[in-house]
């Protein structure tokens, strides 16, 4: 089941089976001028990305799986095959009946098995420019992000790395970035539009006490610039060789982002934990890449307490306990707090209606 | 890269070959006459993409005046030429060869075609991929240079323009070799020469309006008959299962059994 079933370039849609991964699809598309931009990092199965509502570094511009799945072929718990938007349907919009497609996106296999997905494609950007900028404080970096969005700049990627993360990246990749709050940015567009975006963003960075700007235009220079960000996971682990790494994931409204990051960094210090921070700051989403010594039971306890506190801190700020990584087993208790009793009853009702015998990934999500 | 004094912009020709896409699992036909091509995804040979990219970059640096892409094969080759046009090539030439003639088409005839076109179009620089991923011949560039009696810079991983010619860094077995080549010349592109751009939608739309001329082998005085005949095509032997051993002693014993030591 690894076929690209149907590509419609004029309609910007493609239907794929579960064995097709994101990179193999984009490879297939490379002569067509189209691409599937959702990029969670790994070369994941696209149907798997639909099941987990995957997101990535360019969600701020292109959306997550929720915005980019048009139709699904699903096998229900009783063996019936269903098309969430109807067989063969691929209109760009519809108001026909309940939105079953988005019910299944992110359902983590608890409602049915996805066997085909029809995806929304986008035009490959004509040009790309990347940039890095250092800020004296978390506040300055987040303020810069908020203003970039308020100015309507269609930023493609805007990633935040805290000072601990920058230090780790410097050590791991042999780089020389300033050890301070940093933004990594990427702009997509035509040559003219890029010139405009860069000019306005440059002014915003300066107004927020940004410094040490680096701009990169061609492929090789951009790759070099982003290598620091891409190696963040390994850089974090390299801070404490022999340790495991554990990533947190919360998302809050942008207006609360500075507050939550500052509170989280304080908590890390209080709890005596190492957790460099990397964030999809344009979405208000960030991850602490916790390092954990598997032999230290007390540290394991402190990490668990810290992560629960972090999730509850996000919930208290009108946010979500998971921006991207999903509920699974570990966040079920938090889902109840997030959605509330009535919402949970409705979710459990849906689960019972679709999977009365509880055979579909039992014990997860609800 | 780059020379101190700009030579006059060159007229560049790029050869592009339509091959089975590199991501496809190739299957041998049951009659062993070749591989299955019907309904199989085809695209531009990856080394040809690199050649096109290099030519387009030269045009952007004003080192090339015009870039012409040429492809030999059936009507579907026009898609391959369109991809080159979408990457920035100015116009295309499709030398139509189909059916049995296409089955027999090999590097020698293609070299003769490119050589004839180079004279016709007053070309200063020919860039082709170092080899095609279907036949792995690695002959067309070299034969074309020989037919034209032009110098060649093959397996190029870096090319820069200077006064009177090109400086070419070649990937060779011992490492890297740097040579100077006067134009007119033939280059063949190696993997590390550049990272080819993706065709974008607006460029694909613009490419539909660019010119593709159609010619036949006869128009260029090239005979269709080849001097090679494919006798049979077979799959490589299936891999036999590996054997796990418990310890070094068993490993040594096994290696002795199969006669490796």
Description:
The complex is a heterodimer of chains A (366) and B (261). With 366 residues, chain A is an alpha+beta fold. Chain A has helices spanning 22-28, 46-51, 59-62, 65-68, 100-104, 138-150, 163-173, 191-207, 219-230, 232-239, 257-270, 297-316, 332-339, 341-354, and strands at 4-8, 13-16, 34-35, 69-75, 81-83, 113-120, 122-123, 127-134, 157-161, 182-189, 211-216, 244-247, 250-251, 277-280, 285-292. In chain A, the strands form three sheets. In chain A, strands 8, 9, 10, 11, 12, 13, 14 and 15 form an eight-stranded antiparallel sheet that branches. Chain A has a five-stranded antiparallel sheet with strand order 1-2-6-4-5. In chain A, helix 11 packs antiparallel against helix 12. Chain B has helices at 46-60, 77-87, 99-104, 107-120, 140-148, 201-207, 248-257, and strands spanning 10-15, 18-20, 42-44, 64-73, 91-96, 125-129, 152-162, 165-172, 175-182, 185-189, 212-216. In chain B, strands 9-8-7-10-6-1-4-5-11 form a nine-stranded mixed sheet, sandwiched between helices. In chain B, strands 2-3 form a two-stranded antiparallel sheet. In chain B, strand 7 (152-162) and strand 8 (165-172) form a beta hairpin. The mean pLDDT of chain B is 94. The A-B interface holds A 24, 27-28, 30-35, 123-126, 219-220 and B 21, 23, 41, 43-44, 83, 86, 195, 198-204.
User: What is the CA-based Rg of chain B, rounded?
Assistant: 21 Å
Largest sheet of chain B: 9 strands, mixed
Q: Biggest interface between protein chains, with counts per chain?
A: A-B, 15 and 15 residues
Order of helices and strands of chain A: EEHEHHHEEHEEEHEHEHEHHEEHEEHHH
Quaternary status? heterodimer
Task: For the record, give the distance between the C-alpha atoms at the N and C termini of chain A, rounded to a whole number.
Answer: 29 Å
Going by helix content, strand content and strand pairing, the class of chain B is: alpha/beta
How many helices of chain A? The count is 14
Terminal CA distance of chain B: 51 Å
Overall pLDDT of chain B: 94
- The helix tally of chain B amounts to 7
Shape of chain A: globular
N-to-C SSE string of chain B, H for helix and E for strand: EEEHEHEHHEHEEEEHEH
The low-confidence runs of chain A, each spanning 5 or more residues with pLDDT under 50, are none
In terms of DSSP E residues, the strand content of chain B is: 25-35%
